[in-house]
Input
Amino acid sequence: MALHPTVEKVTARIIERSAATRGPYLDRMHRAAEAGPARAHLTCGNQAHAYAAMGEAQGDLAAARAPNIGIVTAYNDMLSAHQPFETFPDLIRATARKSGATAQVAGGVPAMCDGVTQGQPGMELSLFSRDVIALAAGVALSHNCFDAAIYLGVCDKIVPGLVMAAATFGHIPAIFLPAGPMTSGLPNDEKAKVRQQFATGEVDRAELMAAEMASYHGPGTCTFYGTANSNQMLMEFMGLHLPGASFVNPNTPMREALTVAGVERALGMTALGSDYRPACDVLDERAFVNGIVGLMATGGSTNLVLHLPAMARAAGIQLELEDFNELSGATPLMARVYPNGLADVNHFHAAGGLTYMIGELLDAGLLHPDSPTVMGSGLRDYVQEPKLRDGRAMWEPAPRISQNDKILRPATDPFQPTGGLQQLSGNLGLGMIKTSAVDPARHVIEAPARVFHTQDAVKDAFKAGEFTADTIIVVRFQGPQANGMPELHGLTPTLAVLQDRGLKVALVTDGRMSGASGKVPSAIHVTPEAAAGGPLALLQDGDIVRLDAKAGVIETSADLSTRTPAAPDLSANAHGIGRELFETFRRNVGPAAHGAAVVV
Output
């Protein structure tokens, strides 16, 4: 199948735009690779420190004749998705030893849970934690003792931060090993209904807690299709996972077999063998285009519109919002997974999941089939699914028919002809809207604005009964320079209640929404942000604002030319719960359109 003309055009544009940065990046990576196995160049004292605790493996490490894998882990007990990683290093080390190789935990990286910090001061550290993770992984790998790296991470900022590190250390092969989603609990739509009932006072906190605990009930990723599971999709579409590995539940024989297979594949990709596959070659322009197409086809998280440009820049590749927008226009929406539907990721996986989607998109010419992957022969390998055979993961052709067309549909008969995201532009700046879960009747909202500086102020106005007519709710000074760009997911139940009451409502913000953002139209990531003097700082209550997802417009009819920007006191966002440690990040962060990054 010939490549779709839009995919071909966007890829060519990215390559041309990135030439000045991608070329020097590859030169650096290839020079590092030419130096040979890193630890051969360390002094005897360097090596003795590195291997002192390795017991019988010390001799093999010193001889540098067999590969040594560096494990970078985001294990902690705070994230259900990361708790299973506690046992992974032992299995990785044992598998490496069986192959005559070695593995060491190079270091750990922080991993915070946005579900815990939603609406709390800690959420203001969340986006910056991605760059901290990249820095921490860089410290781990700076020991320069490794022939390949295995990255253990799943959730919102963790995978993007680890990819940034993998690109920075792109001269060594990289493979990502997921832990998988938790088994299905209370359906996500029922949980959301209880949240709305709590917002209106229909149920008490005990009933809300019971619903939340029934939904988030065990080890593994939360089962809705938010940022964490969008990350897993991305790693598979970009060829950094093994095929079909993303959505296998934790603590199962198949999960263990896939971990073993991942270690074996990592060992097979080093420069000491015949199939050297450095991360810099896998993370090319085609891989990022494939990832964006996957994001659009699945209706994935808006957070990846922030993360993908930051990841790409670490590999010398320049992504712009126009790339997302054009690929969205060419990509059919093939999946309905909560919040875009009632199914969770376990149902999605059972219906055919990513292997089915990749096959369909390849046949439609919407993916680069020759994009390098950790498997070796291109993305066609990812139309296979793993089967457990004598305790080992073996790959077989996956069914090419959806097992449930209410969840997963072919590219020729999708849920909608275009992807789930739309770029917005106008005299209020540049932003993004997720449309895949929004009723088409709500894709255009024009109404007077109510301007707020915190999400708590919106909730207070709601409790006071102040929203009685169609309203565009503007929440500004939520960008990365102002307060670290926290998610405003706590507004979702409130806005949904107003919408269910028959009002036309929308959110406009320079902040973020959750990866699980849903049925309320929301113009997010608006840049320039208000704290940088962007147009949102000029809006006033009563100004007519138009959000048009069909035409890709975010604008006001008000004359902003004579106004003075609002200048609220943001000092409260500078202290407490660690926020004072991130003042340097707030001062130096880049714009949201380029990933809101500090380190690239």
The radius of gyration is 24 Å.
